[in-house]
Amino acid sequence: MLFLEANGARIPAIGLGTWELRGRTCARLVEQAVRLGYRHIDTAQVYENEREVGEGLRASGIRRDEVFVTTKVWTNHFAPHDLERSVKESLEKLRLAEVDLLLLHWPNPRVPLAETLGALAHVRQLGMARYIGVSNFTVALIEEAVAACAEPLVCDQVEYHPYLDQAKVREACARHGMAVVAYSPVAKGRIKGDRTLARIGQNHGKTAAQVCLRWLVQQNVAAIPRTSRIERLSENIDIFDFELSAEEMGQIFQMGSAAGRLTDFGFAPKWD
Ligand SMILES: NC(=O)c1ccc[n+]([C@@H]2O[C@H](COP(=O)([O-])OP(=O)(O)OC[C@H]3O[C@@H](n4cnc5c(N)ncnc54)[C@H](OP(=O)(O)O)[C@@H]3O)[C@@H](O)[C@H]2O)c1
Prior knowledge:
By secondary structure, the chain is an alpha/beta fold.
């Protein structure tokens, strides 16, 4: 496993995404993932699976300090007291004393960002989160957040895969020592039929998904692919024994555009 250094945090480069994994399936996949070598699990309050993620972690027998657990606060809890209460609830569900990384899940223009960041920093100072960060923040919001936050922010978790150009967010994060954590890193499964990725994979005996994840990690980006299939858990972490050439990296970069976003923004709260 590779680790990304970001403002003091050491983030395992591959993690398991758990959006839409529920109930016993979720607990079983988390347990299996840890047994297969995953050391980073991504959940969120709004995924309604923190309890099962905690169960999976305990069932795996992993020592707490060997696994990096991220959760996120949903936007309706961004008022300072709400935020602290909501993180307490998340910790109770996970049955953890602290998470490794706590993120603001989406920007919420209805609550002043400085107030929410004050509460996020306070929660860290209380020992409920080892590190804090943001998600779905644009370059302008990253700049605003870094300037306003009393504690270092360690990442921006954003949609990132070969079809979406995220050069500007990557540059902004790098300027501030923050990591980019790529969500939807296999483009919600769409990379499976991609000819360019499959062709590059043939050079290395790897699948299109493995090439895609390797491309992210080779840029010093962490990736949190989700799968509900045990066999793909192994596939998605088996990317540390090969290297893409500069030419192959370049070919994949050429596939990206600003229009390649897959996230349905209907998922975000309506501001007005
Ligand atoms: N911060 C945010 O706002 C935000 C937003 C979205 C997601 N996330 C996080 O990021 C994680 C990942 O994003 P995501 O779930 O949207 O998308 P993703 O990981 O890119 O794609 C998941 C889909 O790809 C398929 N898949 C996984 N591995 C595969 C492989 N090796 N070959 C072919 N298909 C594969 C899965 O199908 P099978 O189950 O059939 O394998 C699933 O349908 C989420 O689970 C969540 O933790 C965060």
